[in-house]
Amino acid sequence: DEQKKIRGKTKDETTKNIACHICGAKFRLKRVLDVHMRVHTGEKPHSCMLCEAKFSTLTSLIRHTAIHTGEKAFACPICNIKFRVKSNMVTHLKIHTRVKPFRCSVCNHKFSDKTARKKHFQTHSKERPFPCSVCGIMFGDKKAVRNHFKIHTGEKPFKCNLCEARFANRASIKAHVMTHTGKKLFKCTLCNLNFTHKNSLKTHVKNHSGIRPFSCNLC
Fold first, then answer.
1. What is the pTM of this model?
2. Closest Cα to residue 92, out of 106, 82, 107?
3. Which of 46, 78, 95, 111 has the smallest C-beta neighbourhood within 10 Å, fewest atoms?
């Protein structure tokens, strides 16, 4: 009976540890390997009907389509901020839960997601491989260059839904929205004071640590 069950399964379902012959990555199912191979071949069979964009996976196409529709189907269950992509909501949720599973191997500082840890690690390596084409300032990643470049172009694509204020990047508008909601998500672990902005919390913590990084040149 067991042999009949196995014979009744597809080849995909019974094959394990199939390795990509290019990069060595292993997969449980052949169909997953087939999708992975598009990373190497550049094949993008899924086209957006609203623009010229093409994608290697259907999931990526669905995520992209939300840009056109403006749909934000994933809401944070705590503060109700909405996101187009579920993974972004899950990452955001860690602000509330304070879960930080990703540790820096150099200083043991913890982060809620891999991207934040990678960006932090560049403070140790001092690596800045991405230059601004206008002023030559170097940055650790391409996203930082794009955000910086808006200083030169004056572009402010993020508009507040509650007032007329506009911002160059998503982080700035999120911080601004807090001034409308009155929410203070960042709590000092030493005295329990709450702050609207993370930078305000960092500045406040220095009062406890005794750190005074700025000195007067005259006295």
1. 0.36
2. 82
3. 78
Residues of each domain in the chain carrying CATH 3.30.160.60? 18-69, 74-124, 130-181
CB atoms within 10 A of CB 140: 19
Q: Which residues of 46-67 are buried (b: 16+ CB within 10 A; e: fewer)?
A: beeeeeeeebbeeeebebbbee
Q: Residue 72 gets which letter from DSSP?
A: -
What CATH topology corresponds to 130-181?
Answer: Double Stranded RNA Binding Domain (3.30.160)
Q: In terms of CATH architecture, what is 74-124? A: 2-Layer Sandwich (3.30)
pLDDT, tens digit (0-9, with 9 covering 90-100), for 168-217: 888 788 888 888 877 777 888 888 888 877 788 888 888 887 766 677 77
Q: Which tokens is 141 given? A: 């990643």
Using alpha carbons, select from 99, 96, 132 the residue that is nearest to residue 113: 99
Instruction: List the end-to-end C-alpha distance of the chain, in Å, as a whole number.
Output: 89
> Cα(42)–Cα(64) distance, rounded to whole angstroms?
18
